[in-house]
Structures are given as structure tokens and as C-alpha cells.
Design brief:
Layout: E1 3-5, H1 8-18, H2 30-40, E2 43-44, H3 54-60, H4 68-76, E3 81-86, E4 88-93, H5 101-114, H6 116-119, H7 122-132, E5 145-146, E6 153-154, H8 155-165, E7 169-175, E8 178-183, H9 190-193, H10 202-217, H11 236-248, E9 252-256, E10 264-267, H12 271-279, E11 287-289, H13 300-307, E12 329-333, E13 336-346, E14 351-359, H14 361-364, H15 368-389, E15 393-396, H16 398-403
Parallel strand pairs: 1-9, 14-15
Antiparallel strand pairs: 2-4, 3-4, 5-6, 7-8, 9-10, 11-12, 12-13, 13-14
Helix pairs in contact: 1-12, 10-11
């Protein structure tokens, strides 16, 4: 079966199931986290921590009683996952390390050409790490400023980041957002560290990456999208060729819908999830708070077309240009985005504040019995969310109280 026609509701149901957002959450164990990360390939990292980091927000919406410490153990103790570059900065399974050898070689060429000043101190930094073990940029006294990618920085930091991006160093651990680096060979098994690139030519590399991105989102179209970010050198010609190759070798399945004339594509290995979605079997509707960079949201145009939900992360917009707020999370109920809200955690007094709340169009069509169900599920999700944030008290802003937007919250 190379082509299939399905409805919009089938696709919505497929995506919600694919991303483990239907039925009950998985248990809070390492295998559940590894299973999801391996399915989607990577979780995007972002340093902002308003109500948790993006990668933790992704996992808390899928894992019951999620604790960020579990992910840290997988990264820095068990070494099952690794911090590195995929779709921007990301977290992905360590076994995928060989597939990124092209990126590491490219980074080595770029850094050695453009960072000649930083190269001068690298022999000294190697000796420091040999003697002292993991270091951060604060631990090395090379304070001369050099021009760097985003802004001038200390030469020691530039050298550490260069060595990290070409793979000589890995992140040993983090304290908040500060990285401590150590030699890769101390933490990555030789069979993985020295494995040859599984992709022997450009075509196989782009085929692998296109399939990886389709699996990351669940379903994609062959068009420009933020979902393709991080795939160096891939233009429309390479993407078109990869789609054709993947269709011919039956790695992807073409899906036609009433949404538009352009087909969607899924990983053929996801066919069992699609078949269950088409069968229309009833599932429990639960409420989920999604991360701003959740894999489901990587292609914003696709989400608009499928769910009729338009989402822009407005953290980098000036206040005057924001339609909603600084750090706003979508609220999913069953197969629909029903609201969005702006949460802020205050660590000093262990509180969570809901600063603002906005209903979506889908809320207007919600029946009373359905709304009663939503309220129950929302309160349950909010309790989980507060536990994840280690917040003991909930504050509803004056704006929300004055307009009685969520006066039914019961905690």
C-alpha cells in the first residue's frame, strides 16, 4: 500500500496517538522516556526556564509523575542520551552519534578556519582536562575576548565550544544552563565513538534525515518547513529527491486528505498507529500542556491546517507585538487545541501562577457534558504539572479572576 486517503479527524487522531498524548500517561521510568525519544529522534533544547525547560515540558506531558532528574540520569549517568546538535540544540539517543559525523567534520572545518584565535589555547585546555577532569568556561583562565558566533566571548569558552561541536568533548553535566565538558572517549563506548558514518554518500544522508524528521513530527509534507532546520546543505532539490527515494523504497507512505491537494507522508513503520486511528475506537480524552517547541508543533503551518490552531512562540517578539504572552503553552484536550495559557513558576515561594488564559474556537463548540469532563481532566493535569514544577500553591492572576475565565479550577 503506497497511498491512502484518510480524513482530517483520522490524521488528528493519528498524531495525538503517535505522540503519546492519548489515553493515560506512561509510567515515570527511563524506558518510557527512551522509547519516546527513540521514536521521535530528538527533543529540542532551549535554555529558557519559565515553567520548566522545553525538553522537560515535552516529557511531563507524556510521562506520569515526571521528574527532570530522570532525564539528567539518562544524559549524564547512564549515557543513553546525549546533548548535541540536531534540530538546533537537542537531546537524542547516544546510538545515533555515528550519523552525525558529517556535522562534526563540518564543524571542525568551520571552527578551525574561523576560530584561529581559540585554537591557540586548545592544547592548554586539553592538559587542564587531563589533569582536572570536567571543566566549565569558569574553570579555565583564558579571559581574552574574541569575536564569536553570537557575541564577543572569552577565548576559553570559544575553545571549549569548538572542541564540543567537532566532537572531541561532550557535556559531562550541567548546573542550571552551565555546561561542564569532558573528553568524549571517557564517556562514549569505542564501538559508538569510532563507528563509521552509516551514510556513505549525500543521498543516503538526506534520505536518513528526511525520514528522521518525518518521524520526529509524525507526519509531514514535502515543502519548506521549520521541521527541516539543522539539516545542513539540504535544499528543495535534495529534499525532493529524498522524498522520491523514500517513496520508492517504501520507507514512507503517502496520505491524501480533504485538507489540501498536497499529500502528507508518514513513516511506514507508523502504519499500525494510523490503522488504529482510522478504526475510530474510543479513547479517554485527557488534557495536556504542550511545550513551545514540542515535536508535534515543529511545523506550525501543518498544525494550522490539521487542527485549525495557530501558534507562534512570542518570546522573541517585542511586548507591543505579542498577541498573547511571553511564554505561552497550548492546552490540548483529546484531539483538539482548546486553549492556551501563560504559566510562571516562582521557585522562591514554590508557587505556580496562571498569568493569563485564552480559549480557542474549539471551546465554543464544547457541550456542557464535555466541558465537565474537560474540567476534571484539566484539574488532574494541573496537579501533575504543579508536582513536576515542585509548586505547592497555585495563584490565579487578577486578570483571570476578574474575567472569570477559569474560576472553575479546583485545587
Amino acid at each position: 500500500m503506497n497511498k491512502l486517503s484518510v480524513s482530517r479527524e483520522n490524521i488528528k487522531s493519528f498524531l495525538i496517538s503517535y505522540h503519546d498524548l492519548s489515553s493515560d500517561k506512561a509510567s515515570a521510568d527511563k524506558e518510557a522516556i527512551l522509547k519516546y525519544v527513540r521514536k521521535v529522534g530528538c527533543l529540542q533544547f532551549d535554555p529558557l526556564n519559565i515553567a520548566g525547560n522545553n525538553h522537560d515540558l515535552v516529557l511531563q506531558s507524556r510521562v506520569k509523575n515526571y521528574n527532570p532528574g530522570i532525564l539528567r540520569e539518562l544524559l549524564y549517568t547512564d549515557r543513553k542520551l546525549v546533548d548535541y546538535w540536531d534540530k538546533n540544540m537537542s537531546i537524542f539517543p547516544l546510538e545515533d552519534w555515528p550519523y552525525f559525523s558529517r556535522h562534526r567534520k563540518r564543524m571542525e572545518r568551520i571552527f578551525k578556519e574561523k576560530s584561529r584565535e581559540a585554537l591557540k589555547v586548545i592544547p592548554d585546555i586539553r592538559e587542564i582536562i587531563k589533569d582536572k577532569g570536567p571543566v566549565s568556561s569558569l574553570d579555565i583562565e583564558f579571559n581574552e575576548k574574541v569575536n564569536w558566533w553570537w557575541a564577543p566571548t572569552k577565548i576559553g569558552r570559544a575553545a571549549l565550544e569548538s572542541m564540543y561541536f567537532w566532537g572531541e568533548l561532550v557535556v559531562h553535566n550541567k548546573i542550571n544552563t552551565r555546561k561542564y565538558y569532558d573528553f568524549s572517549h571517557r564517556h562514549i563506548d569505542g564501538e559508538i565513538l569510532e563507528a563509521p558514518d552509516p551514510n556513505t554518500d549525500d543521498d543516503s544522508f538526506y534520505n536518513w534525515y528526511v525520514l528522521r524528521r518525518i518521524s520526529a513530527v509524525g507526519i509531514l509534507q514535502n515543502r519548506a518547513s521549520d521541521a527541516w532546520l539543522g539539516i545542513n546543505g539540504m535544499k528543495s532539490a535534495e529534499r525532493n529527491r529524498s522524498f522520491q527515494n523514500l517513496i520508492e523504497n517504501k520507507s514512507i507512505l503517502e496520505i491524501n486528505t480533504e485538507i489540501n491537494a498536497k499529500p502528507f507522508f508518514i513513516n511506514s513503520k507508523s502504519m499500525d498507529i494510523l490503522e488504529k486511528s482510522i478504526s475510530g475506537s474510543k479513547r479517554k480524552k485527557r488534557v495536556s500542556f504542550l511545550a513551545p517547541l514540542d515535536n508535534l508543533l515543529w511545523d506550525r503551518k501543518l498544525i494550522k491546517e490539521i487542527f485549525d490552531f495557530e501558534y507562534v512562540w512570542e518570546v522573541y517578539k517585542p511586548v507591543s507585538q505579542r498577541q498573547y504572552g511571553y511564554y505561552v503553552l497550548p492546552v490540548l484536550f483529546g484531539n483538539d487545541f482548546v486553549a492556551r495559557f501563560e504559566p510562571v513558576r516562582n521557585r522562591k515561594n514554590s508557587t505556580l501562577e496562571i498569568k493569563n488564559w485564552w480559549w480557542e474556537k474549539s471551546f465554543e463548540n464544547m457541550k456542557k457534558s464535555e466541558f465537565d469532563n474537560f474540567k476534571r481532566e484539566f484539574n488532574s493535569a494541573l496537579m501533575d504539572f504543579m508536582k513536576y514544577l515542585e509548586a505547592d500553591k497555585l495563584i490565579i492572576s487578577d486578570i483571570c479572576r476578574a474575567e472569570k475565565i477559569i474560576d472553575w479550577v479546583d485545587l
